[in-house]
User: Fold MurNAc-LAA domain-containing protein from Sulfoacidibacillus ferrooxidans.
Amino acid sequence: MNENGQVRRLYIQGDANVSQLRGVVKIFFFRRSLLRHMVMVYLVIGTVLFMHSPQSAQAQTKVVVIDPGHGGVDGGASGAGLIEKDVTLDLSKRIRAHLVQAGYQVQMTRDTDTDVSKLFPSKLSGRHKRDLQNRLDFIRKSQAVGALMIHINSSTNVNDRGPIVFYYAPSESGKTLATNIQHALNQVASSTQRPLPRKNFFVLRHSPCTTVLIEVGFLTNNSDAARLRTTVYREHVARAIAMSVATTLRDVPVPPPYVKKTVVNDWLLDK
Ligand SMILES: [Zn+2]
Assistant:
């Protein structure tokens, strides 16, 4: 029915004035309802266009967090002329380059020689606690599908060598990712290490996504240290890690935004 038709029909009823008034009221409500429908149609069209826009496609790119161990005042292990914080940062940047090439978005907890304990304001006492809490909070905020914590090992036994990948013991996805990375790294390092489950590594335990801690080699082992000093070996390691991650996390859906709890309570959860 159109507005003209409605007005004409209303005029042939008894009292012309009353009918005209009713007609105007009806037209008024008809126009309001038409407006409502038009707004709904625009909203639907707008939503569809937004979902197919380039920005939205970019937002759907999967995020992987890379967390280079230590940094700033915290050098980590050292030996054979190498400081852990420097090697972890260099390796992390190389892994990032390969993951970006594979179509992932990479967020790093640090990409300079900085102290991660100062990343977010925190009421926690103790630099070490703030450091771990900040690395965890960074992962939580990222909505990442996976997170890699990069470290270099040391041991009192100089014969200990080779990369070791740790995962949170109850996590099946963590075990799968750790196993795949370990397999790839064993080939690069000519080693026979196995991935190791852990129950009480703070970040592994509380991370909302598939998270592994990779000890890339032992600075206390001559063979590992000699390899880790070369950029060629670092590049092999980085590519092996990135390719395993890219393949393993390919079908993992983007997790929902993390609902933040208080920092102190989160830390106390681990006590
Ligand atoms: Zn370390």
